[in-house]
Amino acid sequence: MSDYLMRVFALLAVAFVVAPLNAIQPNIVLLLVDDMGHGDIAAHGNPVLKTPNFDRLHEESLRFNDCMVSPTCSPTRAALLSGMHEFKVGVTHTTYPRHQLSLNATLLPQVLKKAGYRTAMFGKWHLGFEGEHVPHKRGFDVALNDLNDDQRQHYDPVMVHNGVEERHKGYRTDVLFDEAMKYIEENKDAPFFCYLSTFTPHSPLKVPDEYTQPYRGKAAKPEFHGMVAKVDENVGRLLDKLRKLGIEEDTLLIAMNDNGGTFGVDTWNSGMRGAKVNAYYGGSRAYSFWRWPGTLQPGERNQLTAHHDILPTLAAVADVPLDPKHRQQLDGFDLTPLFQHDNKDWPGKDRMVVHHSGRWPSGRAQSHKHAFCGIRYGSYHLLRQYPCLDPECGKTERAIICKLHYEYINDPSRPGYYGAREHYKYTEPGQWSLFDLSSDPHEDWNLAALKPDVVEKMSKHYDQWWTGLTFDKEQNESN
């Protein structure tokens, strides 16, 4: 065959592959589960949990196996909706005012509305509840969220519907899925974006006893496992609704968790060390399932991906051209080149992804530059799992990220965060540790002394990244 014909056939093959992504604007459902870890799924090897519907999602989805999110809640949500690292849009904590997402950021629903999408969110917002920060003023036509994201309202919650309070009867997870599915049915004939963000299984751990009972005597926190089972049940209801409405093949369903594992890590943590709010792999790894029957072939991709890839990817899926200035601000990469095949030339193949637990006391950002932080590059993970070295930290303000850890370091008999001692193993103060996750996901073997060139390359990138952040002079908060 001539070179000319080979090029022609290659072009035709590419056209055939990408055509389904551009033929229609799919409905988009983005499911974000609060405090559920990568290991809290039976298909990921969990020996206790029964998750038939997450297992089904796993089986029917394109799975990005190495997906990084923030070690904590609000920051992940900020990056996911903005396409930028959470610190760049002002979210460095989960408390007021540092959970407020900058009003200068263009968010995912605003991008999708340019392509004619109807937009709605149901559940946990956690990015600001004051003035213009509320979700129905950030691009969502419909927003049903909780007043101040009160985690305690598991039963008969008072919700806020586009700014108006209303009480709903029932278990809150059921309520959110009910309302989301009602919205989906009402808008099934037009492209819609539905952001469904659960509060479950975040503490306090409460769920009807019928969900907890199967795990009593089998897990340290049976209530947590029961809450995961409750979410799983609702995932099944959502999948059934899409099928009954006849829109399965017209709907891209994405499922993720917002940070590393919590009360389930002692049962199973996918072979990783680490949990929520720390620097190890288990603190920031998320499952990332992309289900689009008829368009995305189920399978695996092992490239390093991240929470801030969601916006540029969905903009491409919806065929929304991003303004050049906006695109330049983004930290995320478009994942669509990876949809159909394992693209070795994907532009993000040499990326570095930074994570930081944040939560420093007001005015002390610089002394926390290296507190519970890390950076990914290929299969390498460079990290520091240690509190700040500032002796004044936590004396005048509750500093979750350092004060509690120093108490644990000084008194090892104290129960660890989530009772998971091995997941909070500390690295040497003031030193980087380097791990190769491809052979050591539990991060037992520090390679820093053996690979100084890798440490230098990655630590320089981290320093440049930190220097590029803009901090408020009074509060040392990112703008």
Could you characterize the architecture of this molecule?
The chain has 479 residues and is of the alpha/beta class. Helices cover 27% and strands 16% of the residues. The chain has two domains: 19-338, Alkaline Phosphatase, subunit A (3-Layer(aba) Sandwich); 352-467, Arylsulfatase, C-terminal domain. Strands 1, 2, 3, 4, 5, 6, 7, 8, 9, 10 and 11 form an eleven-stranded mixed beta sheet that branches. A hairpin with a 2-residue loop joins strand 13 and strand 14. It starts with a helix and ends in a 12-residue tail after the last helix. It comes from Novipirellula herctigrandis. This is Arylsulfatase.
Based on the model shown, name its key terms.
Arylsulfatase, globular, 16% strand, Arylsulfatase, C-terminal domain, 479 residues, eleven-stranded mixed sheet, disordered N terminus, disordered C terminus, 27% helix, four-stranded antiparallel sheet, alpha/beta, Alkaline Phosphatase, subunit A, 2 domains, 15 strands
Short description:
By secondary structure, the protein is of the alpha/beta class. Helices cover 27% and strands 16% of the residues.
Q: State the order of secondary-structure elements, H for helix, E for strand.
A: HEHEHHEEEEHEHHEEEEHHEEEHEH
Which percent bin holds the helix content?
25-40%
Structural class: alpha/beta
CATH superfamily of the largest domain: Alkaline Phosphatase, subunit A
Characterize the main sheet.
11 strands, mixed
The CATH topology of the largest domain is given as Alkaline Phosphatase, subunit A
Query: How many domains, as an integer?
Result: 2
The averaged pLDDT comes out at 90
Q: Determine the N-to-C terminus distance.
A: 58 Å
**What's the β-strand tally?**
15
Q: Which residue ranges are poorly predicted, with pLDDT under 50 across at least 5 consecutive positions?
A: 1-20, 473-479
User: So what's the overall shape?
Assistant: globular
**Quaternary organisation of the protein chains:** single chain
Q: What's the level 1 CATH class of the largest domain?
A: Alpha Beta
Question: Helix segment count?
Answer: 11
Cα radius of gyration in angstroms: 22 Å
Tell me which CATH architecture of the largest domain applies here: 3-Layer(aba) Sandwich
Q: Approximately what portion of the residues adopt beta-strand conformation?
A: 15-25%
Protein name: Arylsulfatase
Organism: Novipirellula herctigrandis
Domain Sulfatase N-terminal: 26-320
Pfam families: Sulfatase (PF00884)
